[in-house]
Structures are given as C-alpha cells and as structure tokens.
Amino acid sequence: MSRIVCVLKTCEGGRWAVPQMLECRSRGHEIAFVIPPGDGRLRRLLDNEGVEVLESRFDFSFRPSIGLPIGLWRLRRQLRQMAPDVVFYHLIASALAVRIATLFMRARRVHMVAGPLYLESPPIRFIERLLVRLDDVLVAGSEHTAVLYRELGMPPSRVIAIPYGTDIRWFEKGPDQREDLFGAEVGDFIAIMVAYVYAPKSSVYPGTGIKGHETLLEAWRLFAANKPDAHLVLVGSGFDSEGEDYRRRLFSKLGVDDHPRIHWFSSVVDVRPFYSSADVSVSPSLSENHGAALEASAMGCPSIVSDAGALPEAVVRGLSGWVVPKADVGALVAALEMAYEARDGTALASMGSAARRHIEIHFDQADCSSRVADVLLGGVR
C-alpha cells in the first residue's frame, strides 16, 4: 500500500485533482491533501469525501523575504512527517514549492499541469526549463502542454499527456428550456459562454482578459445586429474581486447590461439546463487547456473554440465544432454565422452527437482519472 500526498496552493480551486486521488484510494492506497488553511470549495469537497486534509505550513508566496526559506523548510518538515511514497502536485506555485521542499527526499514527485498559460511568461518558462527535471514524471493535461514541456528539455520518457476529462455521466443532454431560462422562443438561436471573468494580467496578454470575453462581445455586436432571434448567454462572474471589477467595466463599456438579448448569470447551481438549451458553446480564450468545451460537448452542444492552447483538441473540426484564430473578431463572426445557418435541419444536431462521441472516447473523466492513478502508482500506460 502506498501513501500519496497531493499538494495544492488553493483551498478553492483544483477540484479536478480529487477524482484522481479518490481512484487511488479505491485501489486500497492512503491519500491526503496539503492545502492552505481556510474555507473553500476544494476543502468542502474533501471533507465531504472523508479525505485527510492538512493545512500547509507554507503560504505558497514566493515574494523575496526572510519568511520564504522558513516557509519552505516548514513545508519540507511537514511532508517528511507525512512520509509519502508519492507527492502529487498541480499549479505552478505548488510545483515550485514541492520541488524545493522535497529535494533529496525519497518520495516520487509527480507534477500534473492543468494549463499552459504560465509557460507564456518568459521568466516562468526560464525557471521551468531549469527545474522541470526535478519532476520524476510530468503529466500534461493536454498534448499541447506535453509538447511545450518536451521543448523545454523534459525527457520524452518522463512526459505523458492525460487530460483531466469531464464527468460524462453527469453532463448528459436534458430538455430544452430556452423559453423559461432566457425568454427566447422556440427556433431562436442561442449561443452560450460559460467562464469566469479574469482581470488582465500584466505579464501575459496585458490589457485584456484571458477568457476572451471582449472578443466574443465585439463579434456578437456585429453578428447579431440584424438578427432579432439571436441570444447570447454568459454564465460566470468575476473570478475574484479584480475580475468582477473588470467584468463590470467591460459590460458597461460594451452595453451588455442594457442589451435585451444578452443574458448574464453571475452563477448557476446547475449549468446543464443552460447547455441543453443552447445551440452552440463559445470558448474564445487567449490561453486555455480544454476548458468549457468538454462540458458543452458532453452535453451534445457543438463548440466554437479559439486555436489557443489545447482548445482545438476538444473538438473535431467541421464535425463537432469550429476552430478560429484567437482574438480574431472577424473569424468568430464567420463561425457564428455558420452555426446560425446550421441550426436549420439536422446539421447542428449531428454535430452535437459527434461532440458527445468525441468526449466519450477521449475525455471520460473516469478513464482519465484511472490513467493518472496508474502513473501515480508507477504503471504508466
């Protein structure tokens, strides 16, 4: 029996690591999480699942200070006391901390990369080039990310691409409720974007949000100008206070709040009825792993995605969706036009079925979690 410890820099996000760790537990192994103190969605999920949780003795801040080496030493002592056979970590701050804190420890280090955004920062890319070989195995969340790490010098034999996947048993198409949810009529065209709004980052894509809300809203203004039957549904508040401030400014600037056929929901208890009532999902991100396109496709909703990061892996071009250049308003307008025209007849329905099949074959969360567990326990496949 092995003991696997997962280290994450957050008590809020990172819930995608839980199915992977639970798969290890189901095979008879001990699991535990080390996360920051405080309440959050991740902490609540772990408590509900009865998973051992320890509060990290390091705050995952790398600002130069006397507290930095002390915090890393405390994390090292904490991990030594836990005596893990495997230390599993996601997110770049977690990776940096664990690599340093476990130097010369016998535990096997497995790093899983959720998305490629931080590799677009030259300083971080330089640091990763130096430190990535401290990972015994790197599990890239996409083929795109695997290529990036091989280019940084990680030996190909130590890099494997396994997506996080999505729960295809939960995300199944239900009844169309567009009339009740959006006040739309049967036959109206519904496009949906499900994503938090992130404030612009100074180091990567300065001045614009990473999820591409600006691109979609500009494209929608052009696309829907003479289409009274076209509705845009936006689901997602600001990710944090800065993101919410940015969302308010953006929506005010582009007239979202006053538009009768743009419907914004800050949050929803269950997103499935929204996908079931949409004709197409849009993911116009500037950088992304697979994003909301997996959930949308599992729900039988075709997607328009940008060519950023691993998003193209989430669709079969021309069969289950469209791929457009990132930040290209004109190309996005053209894709929306194609989706709008395809709603007549059976074309969109056929694309939705193809989208579902693609997810079942390549992105079933249960299968993906099983493959990650194989890696953690030493049997890469």
UniProtKB/TrEMBL annotation:
Residues 23-165 form the Glycosyltransferase subfamily 4-like N-terminal domain. Keywords: Glycosyltransferase, Membrane, Transferase, Transmembrane, Transmembrane helix. InterPro entries: Glyco_trans_1 (IPR001296), Glyco_trans_4-like_N (IPR028098). Gene3D superfamilies: Glycogen Phosphorylase B (3.40.50.2000). It comes from the Bacteria. The chain crosses the membrane at residues 86-105. The keyword Methyltransferase does not apply. Belongs to the glycosyltransferase group 1 family. Glycosyltransferase 4 subfamily. PANTHER family: COLANIC ACID BIOSYNTHESIS GLYCOSYLTRANSFERASE WCAL-RELATED, GLYCOSYLTRANSFERASE. This is Glycosyltransferase. It comes from Nocardioides albidus. The lineage of its organism: Bacteria, Bacillati, Actinomycetota, Actinomycetes, Propionibacteriales.
